[in-house]
Write a sequence for this structure.
């Protein structure tokens, strides 16, 4: 059963393979139709929120937000690689926090590469930073990562409270990454650019920026008012979407595509598959391994187990499997598990060993070349970040009364 | 003879200037740029880590590789303009240090620049990639400074005499 869940969703194409897998589990009785429906009903609002955030980030990209950010960073760094790295850290951390890691990986990474090339600097440290921060800077807000949305739905915190508990850990983890990157890429960061600064200036999309800020404020306000913050995301999408449609910069089809319907379907199907695995043995096994309570050692153990699980099978099935177990312990263990599954993927190239193995099997001719540097960077940052973020979470829980 | 000029971001002006100053007039000049494959591999890895996402039309890897190709071509273009002499252009992708060594096979001279910590003169004044190239180059290497080289006054004081004698070897024997 476990092997099934590990291997199956990695089949190609993942989104199409997971649905028959979920259907099969229901058909053989591993998951009752009632359980499957209950799981789907729990996940539907989360998936809706996810679709809204994905569309929002695509609309921001289409309006030139990331290009403008790259332009500002290129100008501000004045040919100095260390300043460029600082700018890339700021932009990647904010993009990940507000528009999710998908936006950072898919939409921001090409801009970061182009920015480094335009300034005349080596792209290597900056591209690696973007790849790392997509995971490690995704701790802050419920919208930063799909794993966060799932945990957010399970832990019953408000949007603001979630951010408050995670903010110190988020900042400290980014700090650790920065210090390690400065040392690790020392020689790449010693070569300044001699090229003149870029002449033409990319326009700053003020309207989109304002809508994005209002959407962010809307997350906090709706959550305080007891309304699902997904509605704030939807409002942002509607405003930007209607504007893009009116200006003929988007079509209804492109907007629907940006919402990634196949991915949403995949998440729902994965939810059922993981449910089947958890209720057929993994749940009791993990329940026995995981410590209970919100003491610091318990939180550290939960984060470590979550990180290892994410490294083995990818963070999405990992958090789906862990949530039913840790949710009983309240927000502390849920957020500790989240820290584990979000930071863990940086230990392995391609997010998890399962993905890596599967890629190797599928494309033996493909050279996923130099894993050495990526793995070394992971070993230097992830264990320290895990401990520091979990201690910060524990301290916040203590200081603000759980 | 063939002179290979290694072009990298940030130091290419220095290697081009060295070629202008030191390459014989009848030499065949080759401008070489190597794009590190590990950069697009890092992007490929983080994209693969996004489990289950729609892949169609959302692939950052091909975008990064296209930008990388264009940037390398533009860099070689600038280098050729600064060189002001006919030169072949060679673009490669892979492990940078290995590709440079392989490209230098058969060349009579390889020109490269220091790219490490030049504030502390010593082994670290070469970055790891350049260090590898200098160590393994199959031809003579002309190693230049990306900026004005330090004067002889930067020479540190000689280390004190140790129990193994002065650092330059045993003292000369008195004539028999």
């Amino acid at each position: 059963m476990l092997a099934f869940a590990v291997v199956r969703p990695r089949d190609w194409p993942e989104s199409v393979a997971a649905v028959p897998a979920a259907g099969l589990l229901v058909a053989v009785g591993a998951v009752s139709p009632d359980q499957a429906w209950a799981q789907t009903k729990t996940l539907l609002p989360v998936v809706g929120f996810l679709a809204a955030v994905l569309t929002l980030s695509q609309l921001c990209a289409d309006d030139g937000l990331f290009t403008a950010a790259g332009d500002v960073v290129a100008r501000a760094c004045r040919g100095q690689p260390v300043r460029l790295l600082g700018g890339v850290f700021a932009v990647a951390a904010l993009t990940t926090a507000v528009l999710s890691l998908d936006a950072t990986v898919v939409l921001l990474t090409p801009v970061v590469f182009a920015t480094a090339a335009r300034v005349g600097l080596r792209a290597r440290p900056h591209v690696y930073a973007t790849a790392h921060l997509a995971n490690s800077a995704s701790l802050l807000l419920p919208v930063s990562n799909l794993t966060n949305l799932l945990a957010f739905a399970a832990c019953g915190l408000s949007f603001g409270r979630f951010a408050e508990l995670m903010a110190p850990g988020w900042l400290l983890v980014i700090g650790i990454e920065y210090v390690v990157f400065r040392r690790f890429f020392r020689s790449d960061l010693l070569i300044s650019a001699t090229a003149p600064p870029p002449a033409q200036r990319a326009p700053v999309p003020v309207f989109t920026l304002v809508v994005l800020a209002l959407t962010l404020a809307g997350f906090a306000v709706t959550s305080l008012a007891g309304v699902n913050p997904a509605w704030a995301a939807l409002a942002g999408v509607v405003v930007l979407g209607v504007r893009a449609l009116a200006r003929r910069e988007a079509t209804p089809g492109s907007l629907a595509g940006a919402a990634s319907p196949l991915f949403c379907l995949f998440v729902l199907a994965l939810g059922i598959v993981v449910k089947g695995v958890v209720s057929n043995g993994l749940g009791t096994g993990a329940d026995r391994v995981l410590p209970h309570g919100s003491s610091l050692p318990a939180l550290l153990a939960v984060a470590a187990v979550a990180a290892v699980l994410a490294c083995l099978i990818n963070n999405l099935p990992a958090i789906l499997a862990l949530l039913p177990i840790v949710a009983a312990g309240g927000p502390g263990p849920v957020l500790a598990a989240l820290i584990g599954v979000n930071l863990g993927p940086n230990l392995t190239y391609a997010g998890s060993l399962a993905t890596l193995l599967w890629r190797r099997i599928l494309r033996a001719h493909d050279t996923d070349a130099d894993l050495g540097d990526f793995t070394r960077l992971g070993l230097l940052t992830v264990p320290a970040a895990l401990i520091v973020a979990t201690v910060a979470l524990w301290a916040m829980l203590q200081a603000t009364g759980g | 003879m063939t002179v290979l000029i290694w072009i990298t971001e940030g130091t290419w002006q220095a290697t081009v200037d060295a070629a202008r100053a030191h390459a014989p007039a009848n030499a065949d000049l080759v401008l070489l740029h190597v794009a590190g494959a590990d950069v697009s591999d890092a992007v490929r890895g983080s994209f693969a880590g996004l489990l289950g996402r729609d892949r169609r039309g959302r692939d950052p890897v091909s975008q990064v590789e296209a930008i990388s190709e264009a940037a390398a071509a533009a860099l070689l273009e600038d280098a050729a303009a600064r060189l002001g002499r006919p030169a072949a252009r060679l673009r490669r992708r892979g492990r940078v240090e290995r590709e440079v060594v392989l490209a230098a096979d058969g060349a009579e001279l390889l020109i490269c620049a220091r790219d490490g910590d030049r504030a502390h003169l010593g082994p670290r004044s070469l970055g790891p990639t350049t260090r590898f190239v200098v160590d393994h180059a199959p031809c003579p290497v002309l190693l230049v400074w990306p900026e004005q080289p330090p004067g002889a006054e930067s020479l540190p004081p000689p280390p004190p005499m140790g129990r193994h004698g002065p650092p330059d070897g045993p003292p000369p024997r008195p004539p028999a």
Summary: The two ends of chain B are 48 Å apart (CA to CA).
